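Bench notes, afternoon.
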Amino acid sequence: MPLRLPDKLPAIELLKHENIFVMDDSRAHMQDIRPLKIVILNLMPLKITTETDLIRLLSNTPLQLEISFMKLKSHTPKNTPIEHMMMFYRDFAEMHNEKFDGMIITGAPVEQLEYEDVTYWDEMTEIFAWARTHVTSTLYICWAAQAGLYYHYGIPKYPLQKKMFGIFPQHTLTPQLPIFRGFDDVFQMPHSRHTEIRREDILKNPQLTLIAESPECGVSMVMARNGREFFITGHLEYAPDTLDREYRRDRDVRDDVDLPCHYYFHDDPKQHPMVTWRAHANLLYNNWINYYVYQETPYDINKIE
């Protein structure tokens, strides 16, 4: 079943070229199906790129999903046309009375700031609290994962001596969970961050379950509230060339940029990246939608609490 997306969203045409089936609102209204409502709070600078990355993964579910995009009233993005934001995004204040089957909160380029120093922190905490009563299951990604763990559970973050940058093998600690159904014992995950959360802090909190980690990059996935919250410190949604573009961007302005680990064939940036994470990325998002959203959400969405 295809995704139900706003008419004229740029990701529609981009993904059709990849042979991914998506559907705009006009066609979807002709189907008598109660779609799952998924809201994406997109905090990344390149909104259209992130939209496309996430929609690519969500498109693999056999269920019909209705995708909405949320933005912050307290922050104006600088790298996305205002026309795009006005056409496809709504402020949280406009959406706070609605309920959603699932929510995704992306990373943001503010991880080296203290949380309270982020200009939109107050609005973010309002959204974090709102999601607990208005969303069946929420995925927190990268900075949002660290911020959500800090807000809800008091988990601190720590600066890294150098950027965690590359593709790192992850070990599933609770392979019996439905989120890992079909997974191998080890899976790959892209990371691009300057801070970390530590396993000892997670293990001290009985409300949290550490479900995947890496000997190289540490904590990668944490679950809370029986799957109503997932905190993912990496970027399974990344496209094959995302780290390459980030590496070349930084290399053009600094001379101390390390190669992304385990990414290029023979660690040679003149060669193509090795794409080693996409199968598990698709599987994880499909499992999340099926087992933690579709199987758990009430048919009457207003009964979410």
